[in-house]
Amino acid sequence: MSEQDPAARRDVPRELERALAAEASLGSRMRHVAVGLAGASGAALVAVLWATEPHPLPARTQAVFAALIAIGLAWAAFATWVLSRHRPLFAQDRVLGARLALLVTVVTGTAGTALAAARSTAAGTLATALTGAVLVAAAALVLSRARRRRRELLRLRDALRRETP
To answer: Does residue 43 have a pLDDT over 50?
Structure first.
C-alpha cells in the first residue's frame, strides 16, 4: 500500500472490518461450537466405553483410550477458549487450531505406523506411513495458511493504527 494513495488508505479500515466480521460471524462461532461438542462428545464416548469394559484392558489399549480422551478434551478446551474471547483474535484461533491439528495428526500417524509395523505386513506398514505422511502434510499446509492469514490481519490492523491519529 502506498503512503501517497488516499484510496488505498481508505480501503484498509473496510478490508479489516470485513475480515474481522468474518472472524466473528455467527457461522464461525457455530463451527467452534461444533468442534467443542464433537471433542467433548468423543472424549465422553471413549471414557464411557473404557469405564464399562468388563475385564481389565491391556496397558496399550488403556494408553490409546487415554490419548483419545485427551485429544477430545483438547478440542473442547480450544473451542471454549475461542468462544470465551470477547475481542478480535486476528486469526489466532486458526493458528492454535492448526497447531493442535498438526500435533494430533503427527501423534496419530506415528502411533498408527508403529502399530502397523508391529502387527502388519511391510505393505500395510508402508500404506499406513504414507497415509500418515499425507495427513501430516495437509495439517502443515493448514498451519501455514493460518499463519499467513494471521500475519495479513495483523498487517491490516497495524496499518489502520498508523493511519488513525
So the answer is: yes
